[in-house]
């Protein structure tokens, strides 16, 4: 029963889409277990580039069944436009399964996300504005709308009315916006019901049966460890659990079933949105990483903040996820630097600290302590084995592995499926 979790080890955008797609050919199910269309996963197949937001990256592999688990939040209008876009490009999406327990991002959740951010002003989180936080808030407050509610109009109406009771007070009295009419929301949601129906399934049962039959199931995380609501840089986080435990709750599979947890790790660091980022660069090196690495958000088009590799974060990701492997991505982007600094520890108020501080205040004060490694200038994009890499690139990878606490089992040297060095097989 091989169940693998593949997740972001930093602040998202590590290359999870590419890694999932690469493994897609050897797995039977690819499952999203949290988040929603705040994710932006780029997959390059041959000369075709796909940007996926809500759909699991396994959708591009015909043999694989893509699953949207109960822990995901689904905006049906986004789902349909993503499905339409793929269908127009000849991708068969008919195998998709969606949990009836997944919560729906309603139009009012999107409105609340945007007005809340505006209200926060310079204290804003820098969310993607897709309604993620307010939808999870409704779920926890037990006023959320689930996919299955679309099939009982009376329950749907009662639930939408209950959710809007409080929200309309906030919208009109605090945020100075117009009230949202429950009837209109219900009408819009009901237009999605028929088209969604063929995809809706008891995904918990299906996935557990698949594991009993020795099928291979891959859980694809959105976002990343440092954006986790419990383990990330709260409050500058997303509202779900991208960390490994999230795969269990977000898909209904017990922890004893998980055999491998793979952390996707960029060879440097990026972040989108607000919040502390100790190795962030504000100089030409930061600009160069952004330019060479193409570091622009797939979902919002925002420039990503860029910085050197941070081993403290990688060690933390190993710990909170129980990582068994790393997939190191974008090593090719570092080609051409004479020397590459790597953050090995922090200095906080004059003291050297080796591990991520649990206190937000300390983390805001963390200054990176760098070790500098020699760079390389040879093109590495054609490398197929570890031995093909220049000596200094090999040493860089080995140093990162030693600092990060788990073996680096694959290395990305370009965005394409085949631009990957496989060291240990994942399945
Ligand atoms: P995700 O959100 O983790 O799936 O990552 P994104 O798709 O948002 O961002 C990663 C970007 O890096 C995408 O444009 C990928 O095509 C690209 N990418 C992934 N792996 C590599 C790699 O090894 N080298 C290079 N140059 N690009 C890569
Ligand atoms: P993938 O899956 C990078 C960030 C947002 C913001 C914070 C909260 O492509 O790695 P939200 O809309 O989730 O409430 O925003 O989280 N964020 C991401 N950053 N990659 C992502 O997804 C992200 N999804 C959300 O920028 O700082
Ligand atoms: Mg992304």
UniProtKB/TrEMBL annotation:
<feature type="binding site">
    <location>
        <begin position="12"/>
        <end position="18"/>
    </location>
    <ligand>
        <name>GTP</name>
    </ligand>
</feature>
<keyword id="KW-0963">Cytoplasm</keyword>
<dbReference type="InterPro" id="IPR033128">
    <property type="entry name" value="Adenylosuccin_syn_Lys_AS"/>
</dbReference>
<feature type="binding site">
    <location>
        <position position="40"/>
    </location>
    <ligand>
        <name>Mg(2+)</name>
    </ligand>
</feature>
<dbReference type="InterPro" id="IPR001114">
    <property type="entry name" value="Adenylosuccinate_synthetase"/>
</dbReference>
<feature type="binding site">
    <location>
        <position position="142"/>
    </location>
    <ligand>
        <name>IMP</name>
    </ligand>
</feature>
<feature type="active site" description="Proton acceptor">
    <location>
        <position position="13"/>
    </location>
</feature>
<comment type="pathway">
    <text>Purine metabolism; AMP biosynthesis via de novo pathway; AMP from IMP: step 1/2.</text>
</comment>
<feature type="binding site" description="in other chain">
    <location>
        <position position="128"/>
    </location>
    <ligand>
        <name>IMP</name>
    </ligand>
</feature>
<keyword id="KW-0658">Purine biosynthesis</keyword>
<dbReference type="GO" id="GO:0004019">
    <property type="term" value="F:adenylosuccinate synthase activity"/>
</dbReference>
<feature type="active site">
    <location>
        <position position="139"/>
    </location>
</feature>
<dbReference type="GO" id="GO:0005525">
    <property type="term" value="F:GTP binding"/>
</dbReference>
<comment type="similarity">
    <text>Belongs to the adenylosuccinate synthetase family.</text>
</comment>
<dbReference type="InterPro" id="IPR018220">
    <property type="entry name" value="Adenylosuccin_syn_GTP-bd"/>
</dbReference>
<comment type="function">
    <text>Plays an important role in the de novo pathway of purine nucleotide biosynthesis. Catalyzes the first committed step in the biosynthesis of AMP from IMP.</text>
</comment>
<comment type="subunit">
    <text>Homodimer.</text>
</comment>
<keyword id="KW-0547">Nucleotide-binding</keyword>
<dbReference type="GO" id="GO:0000287">
    <property type="term" value="F:magnesium ion binding"/>
</dbReference>
<dbReference type="GO" id="GO:0046040">
    <property type="term" value="P:IMP metabolic process"/>
</dbReference>
<dbReference type="InterPro" id="IPR042111">
    <property type="entry name" value="Adenylosuccinate_synth_dom3"/>
</dbReference>
<feature type="binding site" description="in other chain">
    <location>
        <position position="238"/>
    </location>
    <ligand>
        <name>IMP</name>
    </ligand>
</feature>
<dbReference type="Pfam" id="PF00709">
    <property type="entry name" value="Adenylsucc_synt"/>
</dbReference>
<keyword id="KW-0436">Ligase</keyword>
<dbReference type="GO" id="GO:0005737">
    <property type="term" value="C:cytoplasm"/>
</dbReference>
<keyword id="KW-0342">GTP-binding</keyword>
<feature type="binding site" description="in other chain">
    <location>
        <position position="302"/>
    </location>
    <ligand>
        <name>IMP</name>
    </ligand>
</feature>
<feature type="binding site">
    <location>
        <begin position="298"/>
        <end position="304"/>
    </location>
    <ligand>
        <name>substrate</name>
    </ligand>
</feature>
<keyword id="KW-0460">Magnesium</keyword>
<feature type="binding site" description="in other chain">
    <location>
        <begin position="38"/>
        <end position="41"/>
    </location>
    <ligand>
        <name>IMP</name>
    </ligand>
</feature>
<feature type="binding site">
    <location>
        <begin position="412"/>
        <end position="414"/>
    </location>
    <ligand>
        <name>GTP</name>
    </ligand>
</feature>
<feature type="binding site">
    <location>
        <begin position="330"/>
        <end position="332"/>
    </location>
    <ligand>
        <name>GTP</name>
    </ligand>
</feature>
<keyword id="KW-0479">Metal-binding</keyword>
<feature type="binding site">
    <location>
        <begin position="40"/>
        <end position="42"/>
    </location>
    <ligand>
        <name>GTP</name>
    </ligand>
</feature>
<dbReference type="InterPro" id="IPR042110">
    <property type="entry name" value="Adenylosuccinate_synth_dom2"/>
</dbReference>
<dbReference type="GO" id="GO:0044208">
    <property type="term" value="P:'de novo' AMP biosynthetic process"/>
</dbReference>
<protein>
    <recommendedName>
        <fullName>Adenylosuccinate synthetase</fullName>
        <ecNumber>6.3.4.4</ecNumber>
    </recommendedName>
</protein>
<feature type="binding site" description="in other chain">
    <location>
        <begin position="13"/>
        <end position="16"/>
    </location>
    <ligand>
        <name>IMP</name>
    </ligand>
</feature>
<dbReference type="InterPro" id="IPR027417">
    <property type="entry name" value="P-loop_NTPase"/>
</dbReference>
<feature type="binding site" description="in other chain">
    <location>
        <position position="223"/>
    </location>
    <ligand>
        <name>IMP</name>
    </ligand>
</feature>
<feature type="active site" description="Proton donor">
    <location>
        <position position="41"/>
    </location>
</feature>
<feature type="binding site">
    <location>
        <position position="13"/>
    </location>
    <ligand>
        <name>Mg(2+)</name>
    </ligand>
</feature>
